[in-house]
Amino acid sequence: MVQIIGLVELTSFLLLNTATVYGFEYQILNMTGDQIKYIGEDAKFYCACTAPKDDDENPAFYFNDEKQETYQYGLSDGQNKYIKPQNPSVKDKKTKVVKMNLVISSVSLKDSGVVTCRCPKNGDRRSSLLAVQSPGVDLHVVIDGYSSLKPQLSRIETNNVGIVWFLDLRRLEYLDHFTGYVDCLQTSPICTNLPVLMDDKSAKFEAMSDRVGNGTRYTLTENTLFKQMGRFRCVCFEESSVTTEDGSTEPRSIKHWSQLVAIGRSPSPHPPSKTEVIAAETRKIVLSIPALYVYQWGFPTASIRWIKRDGTKELQISEEESGRVQFFYNDTSLLIPHAEAGDTGDYLCVVENDFARRVFGFKVKVIDKYSAVWPFFGLVLQVAFFSIAIIIYERHSKRQRSDSSD
């Protein structure tokens, strides 16, 4: 159940230890960060947004891009009662701060997603992730010599958020030797068997395993990891029974699963050899990054996007939308067959997969197609000017000498 509790509070911007809001209307001051919750727990998100004092619109919460419409103003006292908002003294007469709380009670696995707070008038917005996991089984990864290995919240698929341990094999390649393991731990008596490590297709992770307490430990080796890249999670089963319509009982198996460990390789493309391009109008422009080896693009295979910066905005480039650009060599090269003045600007090539994001920048300047001949025309004009000046001077001098002889 999703419920929104709002509090509209007129107060000074200084109370929130921030600078004056003049010129920065509809700005988010604060929002709750990413959260990990077990099934049945409550998730609470807080957002504060500035707005002009005379504006009646309030910020809104969106869950997986769907606006939440239920508003109740006040503060909950924990017993489903609401206290009338208290308005403190107002020092900033032009600005108000609108505070909102989103409560998602008794979360289930389907409540994993993206919570977004949006200020009015298409103003500032900010998002946080909510990941819900089963309470029966947990996963933990340890690798010696591998720094900063810790679980993160991540968008696994569209509208699907999960807790992921990212294990980048490209970083392991630089280690002379490493040891590590994955523990699948039983965290609740609801699991009636030891948890095992499986991929998305329910295939078991092939590695040496031993029992450790109420769980299973998988020993990681270089050979094991480089042969089994993909997404794996710990799975255990709850064996129970269900009563049918005729009164008999049938066995039932409920699967419980942990967060993911993603084993793969980050993209590592070579940087471009040329990052500044000057071209005349109607000439072609080619921007590219070297595409030498498939190995460069990692696993899962990295996606490649091209972006043009227009002031503070970043606009993604596509063949369908512009009709003026073409992509080659698996999108590693961008071609503009006939350059125009509007093509001048900064371009970005973004290469990314689950493990890393690489960005390469290009500067493009399109000049007038006659710019190459303007210096020659200028030189001709200078020569002509001085020649005419010399002729006029000579004629004038000759006339003066003629007059003086008379």
Account of the 3D structure:
The chain is mainly beta and 406 residues long. The protein folds into three domains: 2-132, Immunoglobulins (Immunoglobulin-like); 137-264, no CATH class; 276-367, Sandwich (Immunoglobulin-like). Helix content is 11%, strand content 45%. The protein is built from four helices and 29 strands. The strands form seven sheets. A five-stranded mixed beta sheet has the order 2-4-10-1-7, with no helix packed on it. Strands 3-12-11-5-6 form a five-stranded mixed beta sheet, with no helix packed on it. A hairpin with a 5-residue loop joins strand 20 and strand 21. It is elongated, with a radius of gyration of 33 Å. The model is unreliable at 1-24 and 70-91 (pLDDT under 50).
Quick gist of this model?
With 406 residues, the chain is mostly beta strands. The protein folds into three domains: 131 residues, Immunoglobulins (Immunoglobulin-like, Sandwich), CATH 2.60.40; 128 residues, no CATH class; 92 residues, Sandwich (Immunoglobulin-like), CATH 2.60.40.10.
How would you describe this structure in keywords?
406 residues; mainly beta; Immunoglobulin-like; 3 domains; five-stranded mixed β-sheet; 45% strand
Percent of residues in helices: 10-25%
- The CATH topology of the largest domain is Immunoglobulin-like
Report the sheet-strand fraction. over 45%
Would you tell me the overall average pLDDT?
78
Please state the overall shape, judged from the principal axes of the Cα atoms. elongated
- Going by CATH, the homologous superfamily of the largest domain would be Immunoglobulins
Quick one: CATH class of the largest domain?
Mainly Beta
- Structural class, please? mainly beta
CATH architecture of the largest domain: Sandwich
Count of domain modules? 3
Question: How large is the radius of gyration?
Answer: 33 Å
- Report strand order across the widest sheet: 2-4-10-1-7
Tell me about the largest β-sheet: 5 strands, mixed
Q: Number of helical runs?
A: 4
**Cα distance spanning the termini:** 115 Å
Q: Spans with pLDDT under 50 lasting ≥5 residues?
A: 1-24, 70-91
What is the count of β-strands? 29
